[in-house]
Amino acid sequence: MSQATAYEQLMLELVNAARAKVGAQPLAFNGYLNSSADSHTSWMIATDTFSHTGVNGSSPTTRMKSAGYVFSGSWSSAENIAWASTRSPAGYQDEVQLLHTNLMNSAGHKANILNGSFREIGIGFNTGAYQGWDAAFATQNFARSGSKIFLTGVTMDDKDGDRFYDVGEALGGVTITAVSSTGARYTTTSQSAGGYSLALAAGTYKVTFSGGGIVSTTKQVTVGANNVKLDLIDPAMIKIINGTTLANTLYGTTGVDAINGSGGNDKLYGRTGNDTLKGGTENDTLYGEGGRDVLDGGAGNDVLSGGLDGDTFRFVGSWGADKIVGFQDTIDRIDLRGNALSFSTLSVTQGHADGDGIADDVIIKGNGQTIMLLNTQKALIGAADFLF
């Protein structure tokens, strides 16, 4: 299977925009169809040929099957091909738009583009010499197979503000997770060109976009008998702030930050926003301040202070002996996931950990390591304060 390039993603966005105008369901990329389309485009350029009849006299449907696409149940297929001489300026966005316009100006090709029964597509765009011209070629392979329905779309940073995908605006590596009202979970990742497709059963879903450097966003969508397009346009981005191997004092912004201390005895300040602070390898001091923050001291003996909002103190692997200042029962959480621990395996005692000689601190021990909750009463601490 091949992934779509940015030019192929652009062509799909043009196709789906045209389909939306007539009420036709959006098309979802299929990797096998993309391989079929890519191969035919490359073959036409290599052989100086412009034809639906391809390598070894193959038909479009035969090429789709040979690429691995499986037709089943009620199925259909079609193919569009187009070429045009390349133009300036550099890049081929103009050529993609021209090829789309030319196809839409041809009745038969337009009928394929707007055919509401198709659900999937593969697009092969490439350039090369054709009969003495510097040419841009495109192959579009359309298909419907069985009863699969897709949630599809694009994740993008809309740099020019036109609310439409352009080459260079893709946000790849974004995780898309759809959870149904019954708890069924489906997930995929946007490709490098920003596109994604996720086969779903009919129902209502909460769809979360996360990872890939973005602030997590959740939307609701209902899937019925037709494909649904759900784009992520201009999500808030996580600002990444990295320290050095020396002692650093690092400050977050008013947005969402990922602050990494690295080496040295660091001081990290989240400021406002739901931030993630990671101390690193030495003895660090982390201040979440405003927002719902995640604080991870890393190795070494660290001091963690969340702030007034509900914060999560994360401990994974080797963390030494860490102190939590201002822990809020029922509001904050201690995250011990990934450590093979449970509340029953922890030692939770009242003692003194801050040097004042008063037994007003909670000392938690597990896996030979220690977490100290300063100025906290043991009676308040239970399993609900932890994530296992």
From TrEMBL:
Q: What is this protein called?
A: Calcium-binding protein
| Annotated GO MF terms | calcium ion binding; carbohydrate binding
* SUPFAM superfamilies (alphabetical): beta-Roll, PR-1-like, Starch-binding domain-like
By its UniProt entry, which CDD domains does this protein fall under?
A: CAP_bacterial
Name all SCP domain ranges.
12-140
Source taxon at top rank: Bacteria
Q: Which InterPro entries match?
A: CAP_dom, CAP_sf, Carb-bd-like_fold, Hemolysin-typ_Ca-bd_CS, Hemolysn_Ca-bd, Serralysin-like_metalloprot_C
